Amino acid sequence: MRIHVVDHPLVAxxxxxxxxxxxxxxxxxRLADELVTLxxxxxxxxxxxxxxxxxxxxxxxxGVKLSYPRPLVVPILRAGLGMLDGMVRLLPTAxxxxxxxxxxxxxxxxxxxxxxxPEDLSGRQVYVLDPMLATGGTLVAAIRELIKRGAxxxxxxxxxAAPEGVEVMERELAGTPVTVVTAAVDERLNDxxxxxxxxxxxxxxxxxxxx
Length: 211
Ligand SMILES: O=P(O)(O)OC[C@H]1O[C@H](OP(=O)(O)OP(=O)(O)O)[C@H](O)[C@@H]1O
Ligand SMILES: O=c1cc[nH]c(=O)[nH]1
Ligand SMILES: [Mg+2]
Description:
This protein has 6 helices and 13 strands. By secondary structure, the chain is an alpha/beta fold. Strands 1, 4, 5, 6, 7, 8, 9, 10 and 11 form a 9-stranded mixed sheet that branches. A hairpin with a 5-residue loop joins strand 12 and strand 13. The protein is globular, with a radius of gyration of 18 Å. It starts with a strand and ends with a helix. The site of magnesium ion (MG) has 4 residues, from helix 6. InterPro entries: PRTase-like, PRTase_dom, Upp_B, UPRT, UPRTase/APRTase. Catalyzes the conversion of uracil and 5-phospho-alpha-D-ribose 1-diphosphate (PRPP) to UMP and diphosphate. Belongs to the UPRTase family.
């Protein structure tokens, strides 16, 4: 597994506002969207392309276009949904699948409550979106499902990662074609499995849940 931490002042600036507990839900959603677009630029560095012949008003030339089969983008509901628009803005022809997953806040075990994506992902590049890589349980389960369906290149785009979760992914997904692109790797997890300093519960902050 490869990990790429995007080191850029605009990313750091937006992430700082996202972390701030005073940032309200509409601003949180807008910043998450902008941040994903910046991360997507790095995450798609190896997106597959093919050569294409075109004519400019001046002369024939060759360029590139995204290859078929099209990439698949999979947001992990709920919080990953807030990253979808920012990603498909850069990849407008991508197909979109969905995975609904929830982490039990007592046991920290992830479970899947909804799956809607192609059965056969052979030869497909897949971009998984989830703002938080905490214990790693959610992303490991999601990526195992994608690889089981035949995906041969998976990139997870996350806003924040914990070192514990990165270690779990490296161990559990060793030898698989997986890359993680993130805005930061934070200090640690607390005893409730939250990232420190983190940004709190991404889904709650994005959608205004207060329970
Ligand atoms: O790395 P892990 O320890 O598995 O934790 C990370 C997961 O927890 C959060 O989702 P949550 O279960 O809160 O669901 P939500 O998006 O519906 O709020 C987050 O969006 C990740 O999916
Ligand atoms: O810090 C964390 C950990 C898991 N899920 C979140 O939303 N935030
Ligand atoms: Mg949540």
